[in-house]
Amino acid sequence: IGTLNGATWTASGKYGAGLVFDGVNDWVTIPDAASLDLTNGATVMAWVYPTALGGSAGVGSAELFKRISDL
Prior knowledge:
By secondary structure, the chain is an alpha+beta fold. About 10% of the residues lie in helices and about 25% in strands. The longest helix is centred in the last third of the chain and has 8 residues, at about 60-70.
C-alpha cells in the first residue's frame, strides 16, 4: 500500500472512491517490492478530471514517465 503525500481520498468519484491531487505538490509513494518488477512491460492508465486549467505538469507529463522508467 502506498503513502499519500498531500493527496486526499474522496468518495465522490465517478465510479466510487478516488484520490484528489492539488496539481502542485501531491503524490503517492509506493515502496519497492519484487512483485512490482516488470518482466514484459506495463500499461499506465488514469482517469483524470481537471478542475482548473494551467501549468504544464500532469498525468501525461514527461516527469511521470521518467519516474516510471526509473523503476
